[in-house]
């Protein structure tokens, strides 16, 4: 029995392995096909036509070539090139920076305020407006579901994925609405769920990039692949996503299975046009274009897993980026009648970094203009002082007393916006102090 190795670009899941294995086993003299990442180990008898191997793989919209075939696996690399990774990451970060500069805010946090006064029509509009966020947070999963799960050239996968996604939203909305106010998820449990999801996404991205090999962990293991996109859509409803969390809170407030399900259904339908359109367009990409998109999706999942990891850690007052803080840009409080007062205007995607003195009561005054109030920034969480306060139009006052020197992170309810409170014991630092 002879054996040969062939590297195949465009693979990332067990269905890819099944597709390629079944295709290659149809070639004469091939006895078995096993995989080590995106490298296939082919055992065969007699002679083997390498051109047939290449053509069979290319016919399934995966990429290989003659130099990808070798008798020694050590001569083949099965992971993304560092240069490719750096280039893709650079362009993703540049695009995010440009969007921020052009729009003046982080469009990924563009979540309209959702409260008890919102109409069903506005729930649909909310979904439509927040679909930009869906593309950014779930776009990589959308790509995986609509392009990679099947090698057939059809448009069923984008439709199946979005059908599963909306159905999942609806069912979850109904369940949450039925539960009503009887049960609520604590901030610690929510943070733990996000942390687990972030770690899974991180491992999945490294597996897709070929950096690690997770042979026993199958992220897309469906027997025939016919309903894979639908199942991924169903699972998408359990993603710890900002807009979903805001909508689930709204569904919870309805106290009704029907109203909770209807509100999540309308929201989900609002996200469909952009998500479905993206999936339909990308599903038409073939060959090298699909491989490039696969790599971009892998890097996106990696970056988003790191963002989600930071969100989870913020729940436990751990900020992995705190060392980059420039305290000179912080706003210092002013001491008035024995109380240190700090006030600022609410912006679209930011609160304010502030410096306080320990041992003196604090009055934090936040001026809120309705046009800057969103579903993301409308609730402030300061775990250190057990503060969870909803912001409303006008002046909002938050009071507490910092007793010890500390660096405290405070966030929105979804941990998508975060700022820092620096507590010091040097009274002279404060401008306007008595």
Report what the structure shows.
45% of the residues lie in helices and 17% in strands. By secondary structure, it is an alpha+beta fold. It folds into three domains: 2-75, Alpha-Beta Plaits (2-Layer Sandwich), CATH 3.30.70.100; 82-315, no CATH class; 322-429, Immunoglobulin-like (Sandwich). The strands form three sheets. The protein has a six-stranded mixed β-sheet with strand order 5-8-14-13-10-11, with no helix packed on it. It has a four-stranded antiparallel β-sheet with strand order 2-3-1-4, covered by helices on one side. Strands 6-7-9-12 form a four-stranded mixed β-sheet, with no helix packed on it. The longest helix is centred in the C-terminal third of the chain and has 29 residues, at 287-315. The chain is elongated and about 95 Å long. The model is unreliable at 216-225 and 430-434 (pLDDT under 50).
What brief labels describe this structure?
11 helices; alpha+beta; Immunoglobulin-like; four-stranded antiparallel beta sheet; Alpha-Beta Plaits; six-stranded mixed beta sheet; 434 residues; disordered C terminus
């Amino acid at each position: 029995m002879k054996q040969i190795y062939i590297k195949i670009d465009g693979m990332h899941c067990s269905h890819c392995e099944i597709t390629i294995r079944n295709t290659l086993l149809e070639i004469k003299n091939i006895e078995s096909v096993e995989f080590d990442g995106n490298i296939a180990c082919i055992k065969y008898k007699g002679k083997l036509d390498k051109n047939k191997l290449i053509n069979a793989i290319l016919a399934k919209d995966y990429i290989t070539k003659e130099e990808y075939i070798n008798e020694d696996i050590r001569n083949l690399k099965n992971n993304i090139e560092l240069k490719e990774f750096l280039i893709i990451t650079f362009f993703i970060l540049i695009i995010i920076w440009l969007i921020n500069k052009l729009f003046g805010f982080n469009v990924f946090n563009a979540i309209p305020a959702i409260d008890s006064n919102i109409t069903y029509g506005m729930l649909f509009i909310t979904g439509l407006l927040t679909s930009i966020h869906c593309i950014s947070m779930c776009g990589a999963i959308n790509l995986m579901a609509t392009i990679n799960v099947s090698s057939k050239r059809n448009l069923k996968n984008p439709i199946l994925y979005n059908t599963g996604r909306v159905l999942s939203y609806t069912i979850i909305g109904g369940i949450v609405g039925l539960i009503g106010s009887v049960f609520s998820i604590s901030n610690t449990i929510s943070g733990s769920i996000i942390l687990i999801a972030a770690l899974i996404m991180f491992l999945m991205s490294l597996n897709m990039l070929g950096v690690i090999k997770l042979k026993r962990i199958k992220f897309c293991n469906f027997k025939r692949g016919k309903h894979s996109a639908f199942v991924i859509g169903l699972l998408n409803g359990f993603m710890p996503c900002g807009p979903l969390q805001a909508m689930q809170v709204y569904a919870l407030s309805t106290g009704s299975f029907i109203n909770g399900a209807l509100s999540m259904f309308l929201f989900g339908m609002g996200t469909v046009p952009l998500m479905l359109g993206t999936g339909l367009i990308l599903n038409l990409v073939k060959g090298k274009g699909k491989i490039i998109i696969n790599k971009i999706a892998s890097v996106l999942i990696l970056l988003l897993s790191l963002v989600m990891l930071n969100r989870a850690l913020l729940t436990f007052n751990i900020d992995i980026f705190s060392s980059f803080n420039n305290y000179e840009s912080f706003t210092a409080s002013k001491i008035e009648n024995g109380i240190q007062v700090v006030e600022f205007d609410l912006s679209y995607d930011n609160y304010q970094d502030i410096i306080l003195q320990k041992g003196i009561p604090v009055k934090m005054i936040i001026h809120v203009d309705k046009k800057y109030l969103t579903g993301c920034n409308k609730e402030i969480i300061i775990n250190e002082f057990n503060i969870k306060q909803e912001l409303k139009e006008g002046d909002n006052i938050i009071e507490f007393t910092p007793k010890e020197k500390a660096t405290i992170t405070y966030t929105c309810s979804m941990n998508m916006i975060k700022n820092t409170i620096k507590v010091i014991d040097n009274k002279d630092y404060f401008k306007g102090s008595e």
